[in-house]
Design a protein that fits this description.
The protein has 285 residues and is mostly helical. The strands form three sheets. It has a two-stranded antiparallel ribbon with strand order 1-2. Strands 3-4 form a two-stranded antiparallel sheet. It contains eleven helices and six strands. The protein has two domains: 140 residues, no CATH class; 114 residues, no CATH class. Bound molecules: zinc ion (ZN).
């Protein structure tokens, strides 16, 4: 996970682009009649997201005489459509992730825009830029139409939740197997507010981080074994431990990355540094 700056586009500008492109005069009239109501979602969303209470944003099935399907179609016809009038907004948000790295997992490549609060449950937020987040296939698919019914059920929001990344809340432990693998779990600081502890646990589960972290970390063990064997021959357990700590410290600024968490777990396991690494399978495939 990592944070992103909020999109620079306003809901007012995006909605105007959509309305200007609509040919159905009746729909244009109905949208214009509720324009201010739709736009009022922007300060509301910003306030609740800043307060960590997106669970309080109401779910609406329509906006005045504009139906849920018509609101959702604004997104699919004018933002995500290749030649949509507001496609530039879609592209800018999708491309805002450095190196196209998914901000929800820091593993997958961005492939979609995820509606942080799903458009099927919040159709009036379907084109709200603050609710549009770049995401990888895996995270987008896992999140689907999930939405927070309580404050503790809110997943990590890259535009608002920097405070959830200041300390480590993911841990790993060695399962000796065979095959030897790392198992990841959520261990938030006990002094955190209960809601934040619940939130990171929810994010871990919803985005399937146990699976994606495990896949990456365990694929990395085979080449690591070759390295550690050489180090052990020369400098014993202390050389192995020093190497693992050095690798961990390269990721000091991302304490919840699979890399930091993995090396932390391996460096602090005395069985592993004293030769347990020999139990790593020579190939995982
Ligand atoms: Zn992802």
């Amino acid at each position: 996970m990592y944070t992103l700056n909020k999109p620079e586009f306003t809901l007012k500008a995006v909605l105007t682009s959509c309305i200007d492109a609509i040919e159905d005069a009746d729909l244009v009239a109905r949208l214009n009649a509720v324009k201010s109501k739709i736009e009022a979602n922007e300060p509301l969303y910003d306030r609740e997201a800043t307060n960590g209470r997106l669970d309080l944003v109401p779910r609406n099935t329509s906006v005045g005489s504009v139906t849920k399907e018509e609101m959702v179609a604004l997104y699919s016809d004018y933002l995500s459509a290749t030649r949509g009038a507001a496609r530039a907004v879609y592209d800018a948000i999708r491309n805002s992730a450095p190196n196209k790295l998914c901000p929800l997992c820091s593993i997958g490549s961005v492939a979609h825009i995820d509606h942080h609060l799903p458009k099927t449950k919040y159709p009036d937020l379907s084109i709200l830029p603050l609710n549009l987040v770049p995401a990888c296939n895996f995270c987008n698919d896992k999140k689907k139409a999930r939405y927070p019914k309580t404050a503790g059920e809110q997943t990590f929001h890259p535009y608002y939740d920097a405070h959830l990344l200041t300390q480590r809340w993911i841990s790993a432990k060695i399962d000796r197997g065979p095959p030897l693998v790392l198992i990841f779990s959520v261990t938030p600081p006990h002094f955190w507010p209960t809601t934040d502890q619940q939130r990171v646990a929810r994010h871990f589960t919803v985005c399937g981080l146990g699976t994606s972290y495990g896949t990456n970390a365990n694929a990395n063990l085979v080449p690591l074994k070759r390295r550690l064997k050489k180090l052990y021959e020369v400098g014993g357990a202390s050389a192995v431990q020093a190497h693992l700590e050095e690798e961990r410290d390269c990721h000091y600024d991302k304490p919840n990355s699979w890399q930091y968490v993995s090396f932390q777990a391996l460096a602090t396991d005395s069985w592993f540094v004293n030769g347990g690494f020999n139990e790593i399978a020579d190939s995982h495939i």
